[in-house]
Design goal:
CATH class of the largest domain: Alpha Beta
Oligomer: single chain
Number of domains: 2
Largest sheet: 8 strands, mixed
CATH topology of the largest domain: Creatine Kinase, Chain A, domain 2
Shape: globular
CATH architecture of the largest domain: 2-Layer Sandwich
Number of helices: 13
Number of strands: 16
Radius of gyration: 22 Å
Amino acid sequence: MQGVNRVTLETAREVLARTPEATEIDLLACDLNGILRGKRVPSASLDKIFSEGMKFPRSVLCLDIWGHDVLANGLVWECGDGDGVCLPCGPGLLPMPWSPRPRLQMLTMMSNVDGSPFAADSRQVLSRVVERFAARGLTPVVASELEFYLMEGDSAGKGQPRPPAAPKSGYRLCGPHVYSMEELDEFDAVLTAIRDACDALGLPSDTIIVENGPGQFEVNLHHVADPVLAADHAVLLRRAVRAVARRMGFQATFMAKPYGDAAGSGLHLHCSVLDRTGRNIFDDGTPAGSALLRQAVAGTLALMPESMLVFAPNLNSYRRFQPESHTPKTASWGYENRTSAIRIPAGDGKGRRLEHRPAGADANPYLTIAAMLAGVLHGLEAGLEAPPPAEGDAHDQTGRRLPITWADAIRAFREGTILTTYLGEPLMRAFGECKVQERDVLGRRVTDVEYDTYLGCL
């Protein structure tokens, strides 16, 4: 399938020949939490990387958020914690423009040692969903919008986020400055460096805007007719943003809600579907879009409750779902309606698409796109009919309430029956157990606010 393994040894050799000063390569694999793990190897090992791959335990891609084994996932004691093989994939051998020493990087995807796909690798899971579209002669077209915060450079070390001072004039950021051109100018150096990094990596970056929170920005990526590559782009963008910010004295975070009283950060996805002739099946020449568009909407709404743990994977994720916010709380849809979970943007019919809005910026892009596409395909395969579109505030209208607490989302994920048929039982088990372990560990932690509130008076 196009996009699963785009890179070849020949093209990688060409890149290495053009950058002989790069003596090391970062080999990267995305775990279930969206964290990149891997190894740094000598560039002289390039041929070996393609012939033998990068080996490490399959359980490494299924660690919890702290990097601990998840013993209940069946990948450690039950099967001897065996190795997987990660082979190069995706856009190929790429630069690391933020590195003080010239280095290259390359995405990999894990298979079992017998060459079969490792079914709990999130990239493999997305690839399988896309293959199901291909079997029907369909090609999803996907783009992502990623929001993030820039903070003072020592925020992570001190354990508290702090908005940065404006680099040029020195004023401390406060309040929403959404779409502020002045703030873009203030942060011109770091934002330009992020744009330059995108260009160096071949990421199809589009607009960069100031968002609602203090120090919050958004980078949009162009649509590509390859959802796996679109997810590669999102993963590489997150690495680039964090690395560039660190190099320039800031801390960047894709945490869903770093400030309790400021806007959360989302991962909004845009999706259309092409048939064998390249025609957008969501377009029928009218502003309402085709019946197939409404079937796709119906499928995404049907799978949304049991997919919420994918879209909002962490304890902090659920702080986005607050009253009077644009984060959706119901499985709803509407035309040009940002209060709904699925928005149908206005515009040219050839670009008719749906915008998927529940996911946070902390979600794994491969799994998020896979779950969204599973909903689209479910709607098309079952010929589902969408409910009437929401008008006005979708939060106040009758629609299926989403599980907007972590416990409810874990329960819906584990009790659901449809999502498993698309993502597979190994992934569902590994991801579900990963989140249960994270919830249980955090449930035993007594927070500072509890001490501040109760210790002195009870």
